[in-house]
Amino acid sequence: MQCRLGCGACCIAPSISSPIPGMPDGKPAGVRCVQLDDENLCRLFGQSSRPAVCSGFKAEATICGETDQQAMATLIELENLTV
Questions:
Q1: How far apart are CA 52 and CA 39, in angstroms?
Q2: Which residues touch 19 (CB under 8 Å, ≥6 apart)?
Q3: Where are the domains of the chain?
Q4: Sequence-ordered strand ranges (E) for 8-68
């Protein structure tokens, strides 16, 4: 499965504990990553400064569902289960 361009759910819903350029302490769950542009595309995609956790995320139908809203809901649920 390929990521849906402009979804951004994986860059908003989960917490990220590793530093992100512009967010040295990572980001809390539900907070938009500062590296998302106005079209929900990652400014760090393909760059070495992109956190490993972000580079390691792979789109999967069970996580991303069929819509951006389904992806957000699933990732929020998974985040809540891990706190």
A1: 22
A2: 25, 26, 51
A3: 9-81
A4: none
